[in-house]
Amino acid sequence: MNYMLPVSYAWGNFSVLAVGIWAIVQRDSLDAITMFLTGLLLTVLTDIIHISIFYPSNDYLSDAKRFSVGMAIFSLLLKPVSCYLVYRMYRERGGEYTLNIGVTSAGRDSSSYEPIDQPEAPPQWPSSSKAAQPPY
After folding, report:
1. Is the pLDDT of residue 35 over 50?
2. Which residues contact 99 (CB under 8 A, 6 or more apart)?
3. In the structure, what pLDDT confidence band is assigned to residue 58 with cuts at 50, 70 and 90?
């Protein structure tokens, strides 16, 4: 049988499918969903490379190969939607994408952080927002 795309195309997509099944079954694992999202993003790039390199010329394009190419392109077009849905699952499971370049960083706001191991020191001066109570 003469295949249009190489075996690496099938191996890449089937391995990502296996990791996706693992990520769905293992609901509490953040690593599984991260690996699935990374694999999906990587297969978008490799699918573009495979389709662009191994696309046959019109002389050798039979109906079966035309259908095969159409399904490969359709799969490639659906992968960004799949990546978005998997990213939402990643966020639901508690994942947080943080980017630290050095100058700017995205993450949680640390101003609402309260350490629980140290008691809070009472203020030295009374708060100005509270009105003074009249003496009795």
Report:
1. yes
2. 105, 106
3. confident
CB 37 within 8 A of CB 83: yes
Burial letters 50-81, b for 16+ CB under 10 A, else e: bbeeeeeeeeeeeeebeeebeebeeeeeebee
Instruction: Give yes or no for a contact between 47 and 76, defined as CB atoms under 8 angstroms apart.
Output: yes
User: Does the structure show a pLDDT above 90 at 84?
Assistant: yes
Mean pLDDT score, 73-84: 94
Please check whether residue 40 is in contact with residue 83, taking contact to mean a CB–CB distance below 8 angstroms: yes
pLDDT in tens, 114-124: 667 777 666 66
Token digits for 129?
């927002």
CA distance 109 to 100: 14
Q: What is the pTM of this model?
A: 0.65
The tokens of 102 are what?
């050095």
Q: Is 122 helix (H, G, I), strand (E, B) or coil?
A: coil
Q: How far apart are CA 47 and CA 83, in angstroms?
A: 14
